[in-house]
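pasting input
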Amino acid sequence: MSAATNRGDSPHTARRSEIHLGLLDDFIGFNLRLAQDASFQVFAQHSGEPHMRPGRFASLLVIRNNPGLTQIELSRAIARDKSSVTPLVQSLQRDGLVERRPSDLDRRSVTLRLTKEGEKVLESLLAHAREHDRKLDDIVGIGKKPEFLRLLKKIVAELR
Amino acid sequence: MSAATNRGDSPHTARRSEIHLGLLDDFIGFNLRLAQDASFQVFAQHSGEPHMRPGRFASLLVIRNNPGLTQIELSRAIARDKSSVTPLVQSLQRDGLVERRPSDLDRRSVTLRLTKEGEKVLESLLAHAREHDRKLDDIVGIGKKPEFLRLLKKIVAELR
DNA sequence: TATTGTTATACTCTATAACTATA
DNA sequence: TATAGTTATAGAGTATAACAATA
């Protein structure tokens, strides 16, 4: 592929209908990014949650699956610094989705649990996620899904 | 898979070695996100560019492939508001990677081109991208790549 | 000495709105 | 009236460093 694609235009112009991405088009990494962007955009649009952010959803889920975990543990699970977790957890608490209790074993620590409301909101988010993922299943095709998932997981596991 | 996985722990504790993600584990959307995160992290770490950001790389590439395009066109190509493009382009210009010329046809417009230095930096980024993508090729397997790419593109095309 | 969580602070990325200069 | 680009401003999201309480 040539480096430049629009040299034929008049010198300082920019009239064109299409923008070209060039060789990135066949890169796995780049297409991974495009697919993930599209997937999240569509998911967030239909999630119903006005505050919906990837970090919030992931946190609710990790807390539900690991009730009583500490902020430090949460910060490791979602790969964020503890100082980033503080405002995130406070915001979830303000919205009544997460309860914070001092740990019995280590008085430095706070333990985290979902409230009833938090369970409900997470369940509704998961319902949207399931619905959204059904769309993805349809696009990928049920026969191809296991292999597709296997490759995605392999990328995460082996890319170091 | 059960909703909560660590109920057996003592009441307010959080001693656990592993954090569980639950049902998201088999969601295409979620695994897409993990794979893309891992891919970008590794790519950025080895890119050599201290200022490396996804937006910068994409902009350099779009400008090289469409020399003379305007900022508005660039903003559409990378899906950002024109007010976000202004500081981005200025930063690329400050680093000597992009040249800005007034348009001959429309005196409101600025046209963009890579400088020699910009071409060099982009070429080096592309070399890293190619090398990085070879790792991904190896992980996915050369036989599986076409189908894998096809599915990623299909997701972008059909997810609306 | 080391760790948990908070705070102060700062930097990046993004957008909206108001502005200018053109069209 | 509409569009290209800049500026002012603001809101997320993130991190580093310093700190208090506790281990």
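fyi Confidence is low (pLDDT under 50) at residues 1-15 of chain A.
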